[in-house]
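queue> holo job accepted (zinc ion)
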Amino acid sequence: MNKIIPLALFILFVGLLLLNEQTVQYSPKPIVLTDVYENGFLKKEISNVRNTADYDISIELLTDSKYIIVSEDITWINRTEYSTNEIQFHLYANGYKSNKTLFAQQFNVTPEYKTELEIEKLLVDDKEKELIYFQPEVENPHDSTVSKVILSKTIEPGDSVKIHFDYKMKIPRSIKRLGYAAGRNFFFISQWFPKVGVFEEGRWVCSQYHPYTNFYSDFGEYTVKIKVPKEYVVAATGIQHDKLEEGESSIYLFKQTGVHDFAWCASDEILSRQEIYTRNDGTGILIQAYVQPEREKFFERYINAVKNSLEFFERNIGVYPYQTITLVDVPRTSASGGMEYPTLLTTHADLFSPDEAKDIEMVTVHEFAHQYFYGMVANNEVYEAWLDEGIATYLTEKIMQEYYGERNISFRIAKYFPIYGLNLLSYNEIPLIYTLGIFKDKEGSQALAAFYRSPSLGAIADTSYQLPNLLSYVINSYYKPQLMLMSLERYVGYDKMMNILSRFFEKYKYRHPKSKDFIRLVENNTEEDLSWFFDNVFEKQYYFDYRVNYVQQVGDNEYEVFVERLGGGSFKSDVALYTENDTLVQTWDGIERWKKLIFKTADEVIGAEIDPDRQNVFDINYSNNSYTVESRYWASLSLAIRVFFWIQSALLLFGSIG
Ligand SMILES: [Zn+2]
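queue> job finished
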């Protein structure tokens, strides 16, 4: 017994030393956490997942010729109640094939950026098959990002099919997510393997590689072997199961169940650190951070952003079921930064990334949020991008506010201000003097400024890939949905909002929900019919502007407040009458063009305001939402209040700049 205590202390001491040693060279075996995981996934959660498309892939990375040689086995199970006699594949890498593909409408694919899948063999249930290329959405004979094979035998519900590909692919210079970083030994490999589409409701959903939109796939188990030169380190989706040395090469083995994509990167110069995040129940999540040597100083900020995100999500939304989360900071010459993959996120920083601006944290938190909304709640991003982008953008702001406070946005003025800041400021008659200085980034202000740039070009409900341009895609997938969720939060309350998102997550994790599922869930979890809200904000593309035209006494102790709806959109709003002693509130459905509301009070009236709690964040001009009764006593206060509103509006807009 007396020997046990010193021994325990010694183990504890060594443990602490190890914990303290943060920079670890990639260990041959990952840190063993506990036996709560199986194939990188919490055992207690595993029964919720239905793997449909399993992948077993072996890759050899040739760093000199910049090629990957790949052997890929897919097992696809028909988990629907419909049968099919074909199987469809995404071949995203073919989007980089020429300057004429659908993808190339937005990205200039010059020779160094070109690549394609050079398929040498395709077997379906051990029989040789030919791919048939076609374009399901946008006619373009140069686009070969979708293909199918016609099967010799129908796959009935519950049946499975085995597919084998042998192929190679030249690694292009980094272009939108895939490629090597110029001047560096850094290869980021994403959207690289033939991937089965989603078979749902009796039809295949397998979209082309569109220029703006992301992806849609089924869940599965990935077993991936990656052979690289010995001096290279590999970071990838999932948990590193093993690492073998073979002559001058290393072979990494990654395994992960319950995911719908796999990305990896290899570099011989990247730095790495590992840390454990401990959940409330004592189980751990391995955080692995890979950072460029010149950004070593940002390790802590990156890792803290991941920890804060984990803490927020586990507390408010639901359990993070994976054994690991891997962060990859990409070099300046890589186009792979700021993107989400299952259990792996990419991020980046400018060399000058001031702590106050929190840009590093913003990107990291946003990409982490996608682990839940995209990674687990896996909506079709080609059709309804807002569902993951909007929720991720909304929650990013919540996390930033909770853990970091208001950001300082003065650094960005020079870069963006002249483009639209000036127009807005003159539009709202805000004194220009307020444009010079340092401003705090108010919640939603970036989103508002982006939204104001083009409030009527497309609606959130529109099919994402059909939106007319990048600006419209960004507004209707990121910013307007963020504002919609912010408005909803202000309407139903913060706790209720978190409760709604948590229920949405729990109900649809490892599933493919649609917008209507989200809206139905919101409506089932609120006491009132919110169809007016979704009609105005989600389905349509309205301007919102409410105004208090005047307040006047119309009888003994009776005041008339004249409110107007100037924009096309209607929004149910409170109307407040301020008196010297009290605030009286009535609710107006906001549907008519104008309304005269009668308030009764014996007190002296100061003024009135529509939407005093700013629930309708879309209102394009807040400075006309209030009206101050002119009187000898209140004249000076009136001016003060107007200036106050100017400043508030200015702050609100300012933040937007970026
Ligand atoms: Zn995103």
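queue> Confidence is low (pLDDT under 50) at residues 5-30, 410-438, 632-658.
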